[in-house]
Amino acid sequence: MRVNVALDAMGGDTGPDVAILGALAAVRACDDLHVILIGPEERLKARLAELAQGDTAAQAQVSVYPASEVVTMEDMPVDAIRKKKDATVVVGFDLVKKGQADAMVSAGNSGAIMAAAVKKLGRLPGIARPGIASFFPTARNRPVMIMDIGANVDCRAQHLYQFAVMATCYVRRVLHKEHPRVGLLSIGAETGKGNALVKETFPLLQASPLNFAGNVEGRDVYRGDVDVVVCDGFIGNILLKASEGLGEAALQMIRGEILKSWRARFGYLLMRGALAAFKKQVDYAEYGGAPLLGINGTGIVCHGASSAAALCRACIVAADMARHDINATIVGLLGEYRVEPESAAP
To answer: Model confidence over 16-37: pLDDT tens digits?
Structure first.
């Protein structure tokens, strides 16, 4: 069965050519995938024909759907999707709503992506706050999922509980791990550590059927001892950006040290393969963007500077999410794992 993925060709920092190349790479990798580029119709069609370089089979698996407006990074998300009704991100989720696309991928304004998704598709039954989840690399060579990484800067305990359920479901279906270990991000591993939100969420997770491992500290995220880490979007986004910055800085510092002496250059020749593998492991492109969990549909948020490889991977991940019907599993697990403490938010 063919899967149709809408791709915002104008979102992000890299321009439409990168989106077109990512779409072509995705359909070449998946025979049953069709990518719908959203943006200025004539411009995209002309560039698609040029960049396909005579590959008519791949070009036939990519189409263009017109949209005349773009939500910029400077726009206020809610205002932008209300005023710019023909924005690429709004049009893309409208295609999902109408059943003309099975999923939507964008590297644009993440707040606008979430706002457009909720406005067009709504929330899953029982979900108060959809969130953005992301895989992080670990020392055990298996990723850990962090949720939320920026959609909800102010949360209540019940929201974090729902994040844990949704992320658990995603890891079970995508990574095939039956009982993912869930950690609660805090300033100490001991019970009772953390702010008011963490202290209220801890007993809620502890009383649930989830495989709760207790509090985890920031340094524990990369050890791989847990499969899911939950936190509010304010903390999660700081963790995400700090991790990206550290990875880039580490590679730059290594390059600087290599250039200091001939011994270091010789050592680099011996370690070149290992360093390339490390770079690949910490590259956000390998994880195919961050899934929007809790919306009544399928959406992927990509890094603003996503390369063609990253957008290709995101389209493939979006198609896999649609095939696996992650949302049906989330609704089922939420009903199975529901815990309603007196202190929970309505």
So the answer is: 999 999 999 999 999 999 999 9
Specify the pTM.
Answer: 0.85
**Torsion angle in degrees (nearest 10) through CA of 227, 229, 230, 234:** -140
Residue 255's Cβ-count burial label (10 Å; 0-12, 13-18, 19+) is exposed
State the amino acid at position 2 in one-letter form.
R
Q: At 52, phi and psi to the nearest 5?
A: -70, -20
Q: For the chain, which domains are there? A: 1-122+294-324 (3.40.718.10), 128-291 (3.40.718.10)
Taking 3-state DSSP, the helix, strand and coil percentages for the chain, each rounded to the nearest 5, stand at 50, 15, 35
What local confidence, expressed as pLDDT, does residue 346 receive? 39
Specify the pLDDT at position 75: 86
Q: At what angle do helices 16-29 and 308-324 cross, to 10 degrees?
A: 50
Contacts of 335 (CB under 8 A, 6+ apart): 126
pLDDT tens string 281-294:
555 555 568 999 99
Flag residues of the chain having pLDDT under 70. Answer: 270-288, 337-346
What DSSP element (H or E) covers 4? strand 3-8
Q: Residue 281's closest CA among 241, 250, 242?
A: 250
For residue 199, the model assigns a pLDDT of: 95
3-state DSSP of 42-98: HHHHHHHHHHCCCCHHHHHCEEEEECCECCCCCCCHHHHHHHCCCEHHHHHHHHHHH
